[in-house]
Amino acid sequence: MKKRSLSIAGHATSISIEEPFWQALREIATARSISVAALAAEIDGARTPETNLSSAIRLHVLAWYQARETRPAPVLPDGPGPDLTG
Fold first, then answer.
1. Nearest in space to 46 (alpha carbons), one of 31, 57, 36
2. Chain centroid to CA 50: how far?
3. What is the tally of structural domains in the chain?
4. Residue 5: which H helix or E strand, with range?
5. 4 has which bridge partners?
6. Is residue 72 part of a domain?
7. Structural domain contains residue 33
8. At residue 20, what are phi and psi to the nearest 5 degrees?
9. Sign of torsion, CA 38 49 13 19?
């Protein structure tokens, strides 16, 4: 686990999260076209007072990837499909 420094709302803070969570946080920020600090600030603003920021980040990463896994398949337009009987 590595300690990382971020600036959230103009205040320096540090978080300790495992490398896979840090990489995932960076991927999420990139997918949303925001900085890691901006994403961390969003997570910080949404967390409950009894949840520390490192835990809130882990939970956010987990929720992000769970949501990606449970997205429904796209609905195809009505119409004749390929003939699969042959």
1. 57
2. 20
3. 1
4. strand 2-8
5. 15
6. no
7. yes
8. -60, -35
9. negative
* Helix/strand/coil for 54: helix
CA distances from 34 to 31, 75, 83 (A): 8, 30, 45
Backbone angles phi, psi at 17, to 5 degrees: -135, 155
Euclidean distance between CA atoms 49 and 78, whole angstroms: 49
Q: Which domain holds residue 13?
A: 2-65
Give the C-alpha distances (Å, rounded to integers) separating 77 from 7, 63, 74, 83: 47, 30, 10, 16
Count CB-CB contacts under 10 A for residue 43.
21
pTM higher than 0.85, yes or no? no
Spell out the per-residue pLDDT of the chain, length 86, in tens.
Answer: 889 998 888 889 999 999 999 999 999 999 999 999 999 999 999 999 999 999 999 999 999 999 987 766 666 666 555 555 55
Is residue 43, in this structure, part of any structural domain at all?
yes
Give me the helices (H) in 1-86, please.
Answer: 19-31, 36-46, 53-69
Domain-embedded: residue 12: yes
